[in-house]
Design a protein that fits this description.
It contains three helices and 13 strands; from the N terminus they run αββββββαββββββαβ. It has helices spanning about 5, 60-80, 140-150, and strands spanning about 10, 15-20, 25-30, 30-35, 40-45, 50-55, 85-90, 95-100, 100-105, 115, 120-125, 130-135, 160-165.
């Protein structure tokens, strides 16, 4: 059985978990999330803890028990604490501005690039060269951050572009005569 799948998910105060036959829904201060359960995994709730056990001894069932446990754990953390991704803009004249649920980027193109944030995702720009994307769904926060980064990924010679706050860009050496 998966090592991750053996651990129970603790449900903190203020988070409601509803188990249905084929899905699980989690509600908290930051929103509500739903997940379709895999038939290879059995979910049990007891004294504010969720446990995940494989239905049979197959390798797929063992792997899915760990996967389902981590997905539900991310949902519980998301509706209680939330997730965020930080991006930095490196380059002369590169700037970002958040207006409501829109993100406007000026990153060296002849036109500004505009992003509409989906429902449940908020964007903040503490400084013109920083972007913070927040939300309850870890997968959606990461996907939106990836799409913003793809507008102008860091280039290898000067390092200009949009990068994650914790990303290290290896600068290549230029060609010598």
């Amino acid at each position: 059985m998966s090592r991750v799948g053996k651990q129970a998910v603790a449900i903190p105060q203020g988070v409601e978990v509803a188990l249905q036959a084929e899905s699980i829904s989690v509600k908290g201060a930051l929103g509500a999330l739903n997940l379709t359960l895999n038939p290879l995994v059995k979910v049990e709730s007891a004294d504010n803890k969720l446990s995940f056990t494989p239905v049979n001894d197959s390798r797929d069932a063992s792997a899915m028990s760990g996967t389902m446990r981590q997905l539900v754990n991310n949902m519980v953390n998301g509706v209680s604490k939330g997730f965020e991704k930080k991006l930095n803009l490196i380059g002369v004249g590169y700037k970002a501005a958040a207006q409501g649920n829109k993100l406007n980027l000026a990153v060296g193109y002849s036109h500004p690039v505009n992003f509409d944030m989906p429902e449940g995702i908020t964007v903040v720009t503490p400084t013109p060269t920083e972007i913070v994307i927040k939300g309850a769904d870890r997968q959606r926060v990461g996907q939106i951050a990836s799409e913003v980064r793809a507008v102008r990924p860091p280039e290898p010679y000067k390092g200009k572009g949009i990068r994650y706050a914790d990303e290290k860009v290896v600068i290549k050496e230029t060609k010598k005569k």
